[in-house]
Design a protein that fits this description.
single chain; two-stranded antiparallel sheet
């Protein structure tokens, strides 16, 4: 059976992508970090940069989607409140949770 993440790859994304050990998360505390494998460290710098660029692209897309999901979750507690006020309160929530909130949040939400 294919790895679920591999099933999401387009044919143009990779010819044969395999999971690589190295991303760690404490789901209870929300902390995450990266400790890449020796296999990664032994790859050439050009290959490492290509891999990191792909991961950064995909993690960035996931981060933005999750940020929008959090905004929608927070907004549910404010029915009937204008978008401007919800965005302002969401930014305050991000600050209190120490979550980066992009300047173009309005664009991201549209």
């Amino acid at each position: 059976m294919a790895h679920p993440a591999a099933a999401q790859l387009n044919e143009d994304d990779a010819t044969f992508a395999l999971p690589m050990y190295g991303l760690f998360a404490d789901v209870e505390s929300g902390h995450g970090f990266v400790r890449l494998s020796e296999e990664f460290e032994c790859a050439s710098s050009a290959i490492q940069l290509e891999i990191l660029a792909g991961w950064r692209r995909d993690l960035n897309a996931r981060w933005k989607a999750t940020l929008v999901k959090l905004f929608n979750d927070v907004s549910k507690a404010m029915p009937g409140v204008s978008l401007e006020v919800r965005v302002k309160r969401f930014r305050a929530t991000c600050i209190s949770l120490e979550i980066e909130c992009p300047d173009d949040l309005d664009t991201l939400l549209s």
